[in-house]
Specification:
The complex is a heterotetramer, with 2 copies of chain A (132 residues) and 2 copies of chain B (415 residues). Chain A is of the alpha+beta class and 132 residues long. Chain A is 45% helix and 19% strand. Chain A contains 6 helices and 3 strands; from the N terminus they run αβββααααα. Chain A has a 3-stranded antiparallel beta sheet, covered by helices on one side. In chain A, α1 packs across α2 and α2 packs parallel to α5. Chain A is globular and about 40 Å long. Chain B is α/β, with parallel strands linked by helices and 415 residues long. In chain B, the strands form 5 sheets. A 7-stranded mixed beta sheet of chain B has the order 4-10-9-8-7-5-6, sandwiched between helices. In chain B, strands 13-14-17-16 form a 4-stranded antiparallel beta sheet, covered by helices on one side. Chain B is globular, with a radius of gyration of 22 Å. Chain B folds into 2 domains: 141 residues, Aspartate Aminotransferase, domain 1 (Alpha-Beta Complex); 254 residues, 3-Layer(aba) Sandwich (Aspartate Aminotransferase, domain 2), CATH 3.40.640.10. Chain B starts with 11 loop residues before the first helix and ends with a helix. The chains are: A alpha+beta (132), B alpha/beta (415). At the B-C interface, α2, α3, α4, α5 and β11 of B face α2, α3, α4, α5 and β11 of C. The complex binds pyridoxal-5'-phosphate (2 copies). One pyridoxal-5'-phosphate sits at the interface of chains C and B.
């Protein structure tokens, strides 16, 4: 009925493909968006060549944040850590295919923030994270 | 100037014409339905113009000037103080200190009264329904001074549990701080009663009037409170100004909060002397035009009449709760309508409050979603967030209908 | 919107039309001659209207809202922050904190940085020409923590004595605070030089830009200062808002100043976590409309060009000093015109400054009389008070003539 | 040339009649107006019946404050302390015979404030003084 809530988002929110935890994992990170309480955790397993071969997310929050997390974790499987580092916020937004105001943007980008913080460690990319 | 009233009921149609923004469309063909006054109210032309006119005709810095403009500006500023002081029943305008907002007013009390009166081993009693503004300043101070903070619990229907409150008073808190109206639950607390009990236990009482002063008659003398804080922006006034009312003896004894111009009597290289109330707590150039706007806001709502405003809001909240309850999946937080102000916080099945707010916005319906600066309360409710619709003197029952229709949109999306 | 400029000189005639109050008469047939901009400047329609328009079309509380108005208001608020940050050359808008005024900004640094970094035995170095706002916060803190405050002296011609300043730096002050322009003497201090020297001695540098930022290009990166404070109301902006610029690392490390909504990431009953810059230092509802006005003010003066403003003011002060010097009995304080801003403080024989100001007011000439919130400086000058005429981008040489004529009135009364 | 600066005020400012100090004295008090730095001290000598038989002021400040002090100290000679207590600000203003804005009002009233504080002691009349 509405651009923002196009089918893909609602569908992913209701029927996530990647929800779960990986234990053990090679990388994990969790963060939240204190503005709304959205919370995302992402776990990754990486093969010997530094390629992600398994990914999962858990957490709760609005449709946008959860659907974005689901789509993103699906997307990164098969990517190298280097590729994850260079994955941009514009790419994520394009994948979501919806128009977002600044507040909902934070919901959409939370999973990317968590993913990058997990892969880089927090300190390294303070500036990049701050802009997410 | 102001809208005339008949029969002590609001002529909401006429009132709406005073608020330019209420004529606005959110997008083409979608008029604004503003149900977010608990976050901040809209402003009538009378207030907006009072400030513009002030800047255009009599602006100058206040207090220290001899020239005509400075005298006029000072008179306008001080007459605004008198209006606001009178509005809450303060004995003297000297007891009414202008701050940036309610939050700063609480911080002022914490820094000044708190630092001088609280120490390790002492207790401060708050309630579980406080806004962060009445929690964090005390937590910051407690981390420094080592006193303990307790939170009086609520009953099942989200009112203050007076029995437990009474028991907690027996522990002898030095200060008791509570909101007169919860910004989430809408609960109106029995301030006079709670204050009497707290005084009986020897405590100083601070009341957070951010949500009550805009919506009902509040009189510090009748309530007998020691401190009352509130913000202009929630009561038809401008941003950038709030107020602290304080009992004379307490304010007199309290050390200053910030230092600078205006708050001193004399400064030498090695020391300074503090000046009298209220300037003692108003360092630097005050929010002058904002005070003028605050005064105009108080005029505006006084002219409508606080009882009429309260009555209108009670009608609104009763109707809103009735209609909300009929929406399948809606769960409302807070007590029954007769115990609350015009604030309805709710959840709707498993739709996230952010999604609800976003979908409502497509219809022009502006509500808040989140923790509403009351995270501990939400933790207590076991919820990360709620959706909150709040009403003020300009809202209509048609707007409640729009809200309800919007909730059916939400249900469709998440069907 | 804004007045177009040619040749980097101000078209003062056109500018004056932007300021409604300048068309005002003090009494019939007596136009206002406003020579009190150092206390507070007047406001152009562009700024007044930006705020009215904001209230009339896109007002809501900021940051936490999802609805359209809240997003628009947040965008307007944050874009104002970007403008003000860029105006003083801050790397990032996150380093620009909105306060009530310059005074609060200094108090913020004193409370937050000061309490965390100063202790008994430490030194803080100020100058003899500071405004009370840059003295009293430090005296208050010193009384609590026990550090020592020193005041760098002036040369005979009322400039900073760099040699003595250098010697006093050898005592190893932890913080050096000084004004970029004295609000009494007009002295413009060599900030870059003084900062370099202070950094060489290991001190953190706070610059009071209340009088400089409105009148000349000020760039924190070029000057390399650690903190810069200023107020909107002295630079064509509204009352109720000021700014603190801070070096990133310092702001990051500093504990919060006030507690409440907006400045937290999370609150629980027993503790809270602070959020990121700049919100960390902005507790409660900020001065939202005032930020919009501040942004419009920065647009207005940037569009005229800070070099053009400075040049106009230099012409004004040269002329004013020349004409004042010719009035028998006038004594001017402060350095020669090339070292100062457009501020002329003077005495006239044994006429008291208050009487001078009052008699000038009869002609519509608005000046300040008193200690101008710089009592220690006046003590140093051996005067209880001075009369101060100050100029801004809208003043004309005719207005200087009115001032001078007014002084001859004074001489007649006290002949 | 001007209402505010009518001859009497300027004349009293330039040629005060009551300027001086009384040593010893029965009552003395000094205060200032921090807004402008005006400072007034008033000394009184009182006879056995509680009547003021000598008065003097010292200090410095603007024409209004000094002339008012001069006129007031002259006026109180011969008054009983009770009469001083009931002497009102309106009476002083009437004696000055000039029109005053709120700031200059403080200059005019400083001497009355000092006089009353000297006679009552400060605490007793906090409210009355505050309104001066
Ligand atoms: C040099 C200086 N510093 C600080 C201030 C204080 O400014 P505000 O009153 O806006 O806080 C002023 C203005 O009075 C000033 O001239
Ligand atoms: C109950 C309550 N207290 C305090 C505040 C803080 O008000 P302000 O942000 O104006 O300081 C609010 C408003 O958000 C409130 O609802």
């Amino acid at each position: 009925m509405d651009d923002l809530y196009r089918e893909q988002i609602i569908d992913r929110y209701k029927n996530p493909q990647m929800r779960g935890r990986l234990d053990p994992h090679d990388y994990t990170y969790e963060d939240d968006n204190p503005l709304c309480g959205d919370r995302i955790r992402i776990d990754l397993r990486v093969d010997d060549e530094g390629r992600i071969n398994e990914a999962a997310f858990s957490g709760d929050g609005c449709a946008i944040s959860q659907a974005a997390a689901d789509l993103l974790t699906e997307r990164v499987v098969g990517m190298s850590l280097e590729e994850v580092k260079s994955y941009t916020k514009d790419e994520l937004i394009e994948m979501l295919g919806i128009d977002l105001g600044p507040v909902r943007m934070k919901c959409a980008l939370l999973s990317l923030k968590v993913l990058k913080a997990g892969v880089y460690g927090l300190d390294e990319l303070e500036e990049e994270l701050a802009s997410l | 100037m102001a809208t005339p009233q008949t029969n002590n009921t609001l002529d909401v149609g006429a009132i709406r014409k005073d608020f330019p923004i209420l004529g606005r469309e959110i997008k083409e063909g979608v008029p604004l339905v503003y149900l977010d006054s608990a976050a901040s109210s809209q402003k009538p032309s009378q207030v907006i113009h009072a400030m513009s006119r002030f800047y255009e005709t009599e602006y100058a810095n206040v207090h220290r000037g001899i020239h005509t403009l400075a005298e006029e500006a000072t008179a306008a500023f001080e007459s605004a103080r008198e209006k606001v002081a009178r509005f809450v029943g303060a004995e003297s305008p000297r007891q009414l200190i202008f701050t940036r907002n309610a939050t700063e007013a609480i911080n002022l009390v914490a820094h000044s009264w708190g630092r001088a009166n609280l120490q390790d081993g002492d207790r401060v009693l708050l309630t579980q329904m406080e806004h962060h503004s009445n929690i964090v300043p005390w937590q910051m101070l407690a981390a420094e001074l080592g006193f303990t903070i307790d939170y009086a619990p609520m009953t099942e229907d989200h009112r203050i549990d007076l029995e437990r409150y009474g028991q907690m008073l027996e522990q002898g808190p030095k200060l008791v701080g509570f909101t007169q109206m919860s910004n989430v639950l809408g609960t109106i607390n029995p301030v006079a009663r709670m204050t009497e009990m707290a005084h009986g236990a020897g405590a100083v009482v601070l009341v957070d009037g951010a949500q009550s002063v805009p919506h009902m008659a509040v009189n510090v003398a009748e309530l007998d409170v020691d401190f009352l804080v509130f913000s202009a922006h929630k009561m038809c006034g401008p941003t950038g100004i709030g107020a602290l009312y304080g009992r004379r003896e307490l304010l007199e004894e309290m050390p200053p909060f910030m230092g600078g111009g205006e708050m001193i009597k004399r400064v030498q290289f090695d020391s300074f002397t503090v000046t009298e109330l209220p300037s003692k707590f108003e360092a630097g150039t005050p929010p002058i035009a904002q005070a003028v706007g605050f005064g105009a806001a108080v005029d505006y709502i006084s002219n409508l009449g606080m009882p009429a405003i309260r009555q209108h809001e009670q009608e609104m909240i009763e109707r809103a709760l009735d209609q909300l309850e009929e929406v399948p999946g809606v769960r409302i937080y807070g007590p029954a309508a007769e115990h609350k102000g015009a604030v309805a916080a709710f959840t709707l099945s498993d739709a996230h409050p952010h999604d609800i707010a976003e979908i409502l916005d497509r219809r022009g319906v502006a509500v808040r979603a989140g923790h509403h600066c009351a995270m501990p309360l939400h933790e207590k409710l076991g919820l990360p967030a709620t959706t909150r619709a709040s009403f003020y003197l300009y809202n209509t029952s048609d707007e409640i209908d729009s809200l309800i229709e919007g909730l059916y949109d939400v249900k469709k999306v998440f069907a």
